[in-house]
Amino acid sequence: MKVYPFKIPKPVDEHLIVQIDKEPIFYNRLHQHEEIQISHIINGNGKLLVGDSVHQFSAGDTYVIGSNLPHIFKSIPQEKDAHMVTVFFTDKSFGSDFFMLPYFKDLKQFFFNATTGFKVITNKEIIAQQLIELQSQNRLKRFISFLELLENLSQISTEPLSSFIYSKTLSVNEGERLQEIFDFVLKNFQQSISLDEISKMAFMTPNAFCKFFKQRTNKTFFQFLIELRIEHACQLLSSKKELNINLVSDMSGFNSISNFNKKFKKLKGITPTQYQQSLLQ
Q: What is the pTM of this model?
């Protein structure tokens, strides 16, 4: 199935879609859709690419991904299936002016934050439970619970996922090309990747590639690559706390421990050693 843009399958008379994904890995193609997406990870971990940023995801996380925000959940295969519950809707699902009614003025913060996506930081257990319960509710109860969910999501502390607002959908050609770039980088980020190599893979000149990537992600290719490597390092430090920092640097694609420490502190605000120590407390 083509995924750029992606159409959420739904019955004609259904305005609020609750979807359960339980497979060896989550859908692993870069895609975007008109619907706002609220997803809770029940099981699974890996990397989340959204907009112009890279994050690590794991069981217990809840994310809101805004309308037309390109994203991909890249799972790490495990013995147990990856499991996620998601609700899809648009700001016009219940009528073009529904959320403009004065009753919903307190939801403005949610819709504002959703434009660049966010991760739920506080009240995680309550929001997760609300999402899980939507699966078994009848339409009326589901609608009421959905509004309560939005109210809670408007009042919590959040962590932005992206800094780039996507005002248009990617063309099929653009999506395919970005998908090929991301697939290549996700498979090879632990190795050296030159500008000439990635440009040739995308069938573009280096200058054309740099312009193409920057316009669609709001950052340079090497900024993206470094962020991906640092997030991988964080995953290693979180899952294998006994690992030596030098080994983590090598396994994350850095050829210099000093460069690794410098880039890690720039992105995370602390050194890899301090990050590792914080996990042991």
A: 0.78
Q: Are 83 and 193 in contact (CB under 8 A)?
A: no
CB-based contacts of 49, cutoff 8 Å, min separation 6: 30, 55, 70, 71, 72, 74, 182
With CA atoms as reference, report the closest residue to 69 among 160, 187, 192, 177: 160
**What does the alpha-carbon distance between residue 193 and residue 187 come to, in Å, rounded to a whole number?**
11
Distances (CA, A) of 132 to 135, 204, 243: 6, 45, 35
Residue with token string 């078994």: 136
**Which residues pair with residue 17 across a beta bridge?**
88
Strand 36-43 with 53-57, pairing: unpaired
- Kind and range of the H or E element at 150? helix 139-153
What domains appear along the chain, each with residue ranges and CATH number?
17-160 (2.60.120.280), 172-280 (1.10.10.60)
- Tell me phi and psi for residue 159, to 5 degrees: -120, 115
Judging by DSSP bridges, how do beta strands 158-160 and 53-57 pair with one another?
unpaired
Identify residue 231 by its one-letter amino acid code: E
For 91-126, what is each residue's pLDDT tens digit?
999 999 999 999 999 999 999 999 999 999 999 999
Q: Are 158 and 112 in contact (CB under 8 A)?
A: no
Distance CA(235)–CA(183), nearest Å, equals 19
How remote is the C-alpha of 136 from its chain's centroid?
Answer: 26
Rounded to whole angstroms, the Cα distance separating 92 from 251 reads 46
Over residues 181-214, the pLDDT tens digits come to: 988 998 899 999 999 999 999 999 999 999 999 8
Distance CA 281, CA 278 (A): 5
